[in-house]
Amino acid sequence: MGFFSIQRFIFSSNFLFLFLLVPQSFVPETIALENNNPTAYEVLKDFGFPIGILPKGVVGYDFDHSSGKFSAFLNGSCSFTIEGSYRLKYKNTIKGYLSKGKIASLEGVSVKLFFMWVNIVEVSRRGDDLEFSVGIAGAGFPVDNFEECPQCGCGVNCNDINQQKVRKIWKNPLVSSN
Questions:
Q1: Prediction pTM value
Q2: Beta bridge partners of 99
Q3: Which residues of 114-139 are buried (b: 16+ CB within 10 A; e: fewer)?
Q4: 91: which of 57, 58, 108, 134 fits an S-S bond (Cβ 3.0–4.6 Å)?
């Protein structure tokens, strides 16, 4: 065995020895990093729902495959207006039971109807429409309306709102560009 072969053998042996000394807790973390868990949005897609039924900013979720129980967690409560007239409010925890094309026993999402807030208790997918039920009444909307996740505070037209604010500043005669 030559000098370089001996060095290679010693390096390989030391590497193997160090690898064997790696704590057992390190190995599962590495495997967990390679086995990426789906996001809450991806779980919803697996059950036939568009990602836009949840606002941006979900920080975590729980899902029990056997019962279908689903919980999504936000940093705080969230509200915004969609379609120009529907005011939605999400609590920091949204719960329900997922099945293919249906979210039942929904908690944590409400819509303002006239002067009062009403809980949305069920969401069903019927072909290319989503049906939102508040118990005694409901409304349907095209699935395409929910392809984009709304943002807390401004909904899905956040860029439009920001551009309108910029335009107002530029049109204001009291604001000088000098």
A1: 0.68
A2: 102
A3: eeeeeebbbbbbeeeebebbeeeeee
A4: 108
